[in-house]
Amino acid sequence: MSIQISDTDNKAVVFEKVRNEIEKYNFTIINEDQTRPWGGFFVIDEDQANEFIKTFFSHLKLDEVQITNKLSPKILVVAPERRLSWQYHFRRSEIWKVVKGPVGVKISDTDVEGELKTLHDQDFIKMEIGERHRLIGLDSWGVIAEIWQHTDQNNPSDEDDIVRLQDDFGR
C-alpha cells in the first residue's frame, strides 16, 4: 500500500486517500470513524482477515496470528502531533504495521509510559494482552494496519475493552 499524503492535506482529504487505497486492495470497509480527536480508523470486514494478514503482515503465518477464531482488521489514521490514550486491554492483543510513517509508539508492562520509539514504513510491533501502549502522530499523518487478536472467544474485545490510564481528550 502506497499512500501519498501531503502535509497540507486536511483530515477529509487524508481519509479519502486512505479509503481509496483500501478499496484498491478490494477490502470491504464496514465502519469508518473520522470523529476521533486523534484521527480515526477504518474497520475491515472480519471475513477478510486472512487476506488482510497476507497483505500487511506477510511475514506472519495465520496460525501465529490467530489466538481464537476471531481477528479484527483495522486501518488507523493518526493526525500529526496527536496521541491516542495511554491504554491497555483485557481481551485482546494487537499487532501493528506502519503503512505510512513515521509514527511514535510508547509501550510498557507498567502504568509508567515507556520511552518514545519511532517506527517507520513497514515497521512492525506487537502488544500483548495487558501491555500498556500509545500511538503518537509525529510531524505528519500516520497510517497503521492493525489486527485485534481476540483472546476470549466467548467475549470478544470491543471498544469497551479499553482501560485508559491517561488521555489528552478527557475520555
TrEMBL record:
GO terms for molecular function: isomerase activity; nucleotidyltransferase activity. The keyword ATP-binding does not apply. The keyword Coiled coil does not apply. Pfam families: MannoseP_isomer. One of its GO terms (biological process) is polysaccharide metabolic process. It comes from the Bacteria. InterPro entries: Man6P_isomerase-2_C (IPR001538), RmlC_Cupin_sf (IPR011051). This is Mannose-6-phosphate isomerase, type 2.
